[in-house]
Amino acid sequence: MTETPAAITARDVVKRYGGSGRGRGAPVTAVDDVSLDVAAGEFFGILGPNGAGKTTLLEILEGLREPDGGTVRFLGQPVWPRNTALLDRIGVQLQASAFFERLTAAEQLQTFADLYGAPSGRVSEMLDLVGLTDKAGTPAEKLSGGQAQRLSIACALVHDPDLVFLDEPTAALDPQARRNLWDLLREINARGKTVVLTTHYMDEAEFLCDRVAIMDTGRILELGAPAELVRRLDAPVRISVDAAALPPDRARALVAALPGGADGHPDIGATDASTVLSTRRPAPVLAALAEADALAGLQVRGATLEDVFLALTGREYRA
Ligand SMILES: Nc1ncnc2c1ncn2[C@@H]1O[C@H](COP(=O)(O)OP(=O)(O)OP(=O)(O)O)[C@@H](O)[C@H]1O
């Protein structure tokens, strides 16, 4: 079996800002020796809090920013110095504020289509893909935040690139608009595009990405499939039930009667409304709760990427 070629290969990428001249503050290593591969067709996420270095890394991967060290290749070709042969194959989502003034949604797209020499018909196809057909005649500045984001994604796709870069595509959207955009991004990936996205939303990365690189202070702290990173964490499962149905005292008695020694016993916690049992062996605990008829309000919560981040950095996630 032949191996799928890597779409992107980044090796030892470094980028520093500032540190020269007076009053410029301490130098910042925005990207600190980052290496990664993105496979063709993959949905890859770069995840991290504000200032982690995501945008800088993305711009270097896109070939828009020169690194101080290291190399980036797209399908084997270097992206820097600016490689015009790659422009047709890469789509970069513009910030919505970068639209041409006073053009309608269709005209914005037509302008990008013309720049790339995309075939006629692409504009209406793209409007349809991003669900903006009925907004074709609306000036871009009159679109809602979610609609503007979708238009900017359509602009990035109009020339049918193989690889699409999206920088925080759902920032500042309400939950419903974010969900709609997630569906669109999945659809784009399902059409065979490689997608590289930055986000500081853990749930977004967990939902969308085949693999994520968790970044902080310029470094990749962990890289892998979200479920794999969560599994590696080996964190306890939190089982919570209605405290009225199972007060903490009763939970303690129930837990004490479980077989398997004290090590395997869940920790008991409580909030006003819930009794919470944390355990790495949820099956016997759930069985005991069922037997005691204490399943009212049951919620079972495994670890998430947010817990992975907390474990990696030792601090709460800073969005
Ligand atoms: N043009 C620049 N000049 C100087 N410092 C910069 C520049 N761009 C970014 N930085 C600094 O580099 C670090 C990484 O910034 P970057 O924008 O890449 O992070 P980010 O993870 O994308 O953050 P955000 O989520 O806020 O967009 C930050 O400390 C930032 O202040």
UniProtKB/TrEMBL annotation:
Pfam families: ABC_tran (PF00005). Residues 8-242 form the ABC transporter domain. It is found in: Cell membrane. Transmembrane segments: none annotated. SMART domains: AAA. It is a peripheral membrane protein. GO terms for molecular function: ATP binding; ATP hydrolysis activity. Keywords: Antibiotic resistance, ATP-binding, Cell membrane, Membrane, Nucleotide-binding, Translocase, Transport. One of its GO terms (biological process) is response to antibiotic. GO terms for cellular component: plasma membrane. It comes from the Bacteria. SUPFAM superfamilies: P-loop containing nucleoside triphosphate hydrolases. Belongs to the ABC transporter superfamily. This is ABC transporter ATP-binding protein. It comes from Nakamurella flava.
